[in-house]
Amino acid sequence: MTRTKSTIKYGKRSTRTKAERLFAELPQSPLRKPSVAEIDYAVDSITEKLSGIHIQQEVKPLRSSPRKIKKRVPIVDEVLDVSHLANGEVNTKNSTAPAQVDGHAVRPSSPSKEEFREVDVHGENGSIPAYQTSLADPSLRILSWDDVCPAGDQIEKIAEASYAEVYRVTNERGTSVIKVIRLPSPIKPQTKAQVRSKLVDEEPHSEADINGELQISEWLADVPGFVVYKERYLVQGKTSRALLETHQVFQRRMKRKDPGRAQFYPSPSRYLDETKFLAVELGDAGVALEDWDIKGESQLWDIFLLEAIALARAEEVAMFEHRDLHEGNICIRQIKPPSDEKITAGAAKFGHSGLDMTILDYGLSRAEDLSVDFAQPIAYDLERDLSLFTSTHAPQCKVYRQMRSFLLRADRKCLPPEAHQTPYAKGIHGPISWEAYAPYTNVLWLAYLYEYLVSNFRGDANDLARFEACTADMWVYLNPEAGDDVPCFGSAGDVVCFAVEAGWLCEDQLVGSGTSIMEREDSIIVARQECLDGSRGTTRQLRS
């Protein structure tokens, strides 16, 4: 029977301050059930059991580690010192209970100060976690660029991530994505032509930065929607011809798309015998969203909901925030033919496109190990380079400012670029800290994705109109520029709850029938000496 569309209104007008109205309560992770809660969250009973997300095919539920104890650290009230840049004051009174609609509790709200917490950054006795192993570990293979891509294999530069270059390598063993991070090591100086072109060299990165991203990769390895980790190794020495050629092709392509774009990574022609990189080999996740043609209504639904569910699960498993989820860090692939079934008004919207989605690049991310009491969170300190917040060269730059503005103000007001020039500025919670858990940042990136999908849709205009009409109520609470009297989602988990309540997702698609997780894969990269020794499985013919 056709469902009658009705507009759902959340909350009610009150005399509370703007911050209290919009961000009444930070949603707690479903893993930490408060003993005093009496409200029956019908949808939460589903989402707490999420273990696999996809459309069909049966798998066993994935395990997740419950958090035993959560430490609360008192927060000292501080007044945000940006009054000359934004209107209005932020009051920090205690927040009230969630709003009620027709007798049911509603949770599209954003973090309050009481729940916005700092996390202990040291292990027991100040020890460093065991995962932070040295890059000097003798178990790491040391390869040359000719080992990574011998003559006859294919290598293609496909992206530039937060502090890494990304290549796709294909040989008879399969296909892998290689993320290459330059370590502190010598490199040739810029040529006169490179100096004239104002080339900006990406600085080499520390072992601590790299270890953090690798640990997050481990924590999310069993979460559907996140990239598969294969192996890591060191690559040292001068470039190969294939590497140089694909670098040049990539730069020319990017210049055509964005003539004002700067080149941040040095040309491989400048590599010396001593130039070192850490290479992280990942499963091939498909095509970057920025290169994918979005042509059908089912693709709009699946890309958005797949990302929302993946982020919601990662919030539950590791208190995860991605913090850099633009169209270059989302990969799409067609894993089966699209369904012939037409999306109707009263039917589920999810699972018709045959697409799979994978989230990449945790260089700016935040997460922690919920199986360890008072675990040290992993979080890249974005205060180290404020140019991320003052830049205006790309649409996603505004999302970086929205994230930092939220940490400073605890509301949706986005401060302008000139307000982000003081590192560790004081907000209403004291000096800004990126170790704090604020899943509202995931909501900001979901809003960015929604607008990207709508703006870059290349299909039938009627399909787009139906999608926008059906999601209009959701966008009211997702829109980061909504009015002061409009509540908003506080986490990706809240967005998934809304989708379930709206009937866009079925319970079977969340807790039962399948998963988009990619299978474990072995490395496809074999050194010449290993080929000679036959020490890594099937040998490949050596090429001169």
Count of helical regions: 15
**Sheet having the most strands:** 6 strands, mixed
CATH first level of the largest domain: which class?
Answer: Mainly Alpha
Widest sheet: strand order?
3-7-8-6-5-4
Q: Give the helices and strands as they follow along the chain.
A: HHEEEHEEEHHEHEEHEEEEHHEEHHHHHH
The CATH topology of the largest domain is Transferase(Phosphotransferase), domain 1
* Strand proportion: 5-15%
Query: What distance lies between the first and last C-alpha atoms, to the nearest angstrom?
Result: 68 Å
- What share of residues is helical? 25-40%
Count of distinct structural domains: 2
GO cellular component, one term: nucleus
Region (Disordered): 93-114
Catalytic activity: L-threonyl-[protein] + ATP = O-phospho-L-threonyl-[protein] + ADP + H(+); L-seryl-[protein] + ATP = O-phospho-L-seryl-[protein] + ADP + H(+)
GO molecular function, one term: ATP binding
Q: Overview of this structure, please?
A:
- The chain is of the alpha+beta class.
- The protein folds into two domains: 18-128 and 292-511, Transferase(Phosphotransferase) domain 1 (Transferase(Phosphotransferase), domain 1, Orthogonal Bundle); 142-288 and 528-533, Phosphorylase Kinase, domain 1.
- Helices cover 26% and strands 12% of the residues.
- The chain is built from 15 helices and 15 strands.
- Strands 3-7-8-6-5-4 form a six-stranded mixed sheet. The chain has a three-stranded antiparallel sheet with strand order 9-10-11, with helices on one face.
- The termini are far apart.
